[in-house]
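Changelog-adjacent note: as of this version, every example in the card shows the full chain rather than a window. The one below runs 90 residues end to end.
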Amino acid sequence: MATSKANGKKKPAAKKKAKAKKKVASKTAKKPTAASKSSKKTRAKAKVSDSERQKMIKEAAYYIAEQRNFSAGNPMDDWLAAEDSVNKML
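Full-length structure tokens:
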């Protein structure tokens, strides 16, 4: 550290600048890169065979019909709703 000619005290300005540079460097190191941002947004799609997918839709349609106590409904609407929910999961 440098000393002042007038009063003989040490100048703390050099330390403050060094600390400020460290803070800036640490902030820039924490920023996520573009590659890591895109990998978070994309999901890995599950590999499900057609027969497994059909089974999942069949079960989901059954539970939809069960929720309304198997009364006054259209099985095709149940199937389409189930298919939509399975597609969203996969």
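Structural remarks: The chain has a mean pLDDT of 74.
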